[in-house]
């Protein structure tokens, strides 16, 4: 017995091998993109089906797949509720501040609609806000504004310019 040379298989009936000739059809195999597409399509169809069933459950009828629309309250009910007055905040002076610190200050005061622009006119994006300094702002400092609805624009330039 030589360990480097394997022993021949024992004699017996020959084992059948599968050969696919040129004229024979190879069984189809599903590729990863095909399987992924089938999964996504199934999830999408199921989501649509569940959405239609939920909307019909709320509408009270099974014949209409559209969601039910709530009836508007009578005008007397709407007139009784006074609309809350917006809380006005004094706009801080941000000119000369680090851009990131200016954004942090505005967010702490409740401002949510913040925009930023490159003040040099080059149209650059302010990727790392700590490298920029505010040179102008809108609305002007000292103006009393509603922080939830006011759009604040900070025009900034790089510290090195």
UniProtKB/TrEMBL annotation:
Query: Bias regions of kind Pro residues — which residues?
Result: 1-14
Q: Which residues cross the membrane?
A: 32-52
Q: Which SMART domains match?
A: PASTA
Reading the lineage from the top rank, the first entry is Bacteria
Q: Which Pfam families match?
A: PASTA
- Supply the InterPro entries for this chain: PASTA_dom (IPR005543)
UniProt-listed CDD domains: PASTA_pknB (cd06577)
Q: Where is the PASTA domain?
A: 85-158
Under PROSITE patterns, the record lists: PASTA
Region Disordered, residue ranges: 1-20, 58-90, 139-161
Carries keyword Transmembrane?
yes
In Swiss-Prot or TrEMBL terms, this protein is called: PASTA domain-containing protein
Q: Which UniProt keywords apply?
A: Membrane, Transmembrane, Transmembrane helix
User: Which species is this record about?
Assistant: Actinocorallia longicatena
Q: Which regions are flagged for Low complexity bias? A: 58-71
């Amino acid at each position: 017995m030589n360990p480097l040379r394997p022993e021949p298989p024992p004699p017996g009936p020959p084992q059948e091998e599968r050969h696919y000739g040129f004229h024979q059809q190879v069984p189809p195999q599903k590729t990863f993109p095909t399987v992924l597409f089938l999964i996504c399509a199934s999830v999408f169809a199921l989501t649509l089906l569940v959405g239609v069933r939920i909307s019909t459950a709320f509408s009270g009828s099974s014949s209409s797949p559209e969601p039910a629309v709530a009836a508007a309250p009578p005008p007397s009910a709407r007139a009784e509720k006074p609309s809350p007055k917006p809380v006005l905040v004094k706009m801080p002076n941000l000119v000369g501040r680090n851009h990131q610190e200016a954004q942090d200050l505005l967010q702490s005061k409740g401002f949510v609609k913040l925009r930023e622009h490159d003040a040099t006119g080059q149209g650059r994006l302010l990727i790392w806000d700590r490298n920029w300094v505010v040179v102008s702002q809108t609305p002007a400092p000292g103006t009393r504004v509603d922080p939830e609805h006011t759009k604040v624009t900070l025009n900034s330039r790089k510290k090195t310019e």
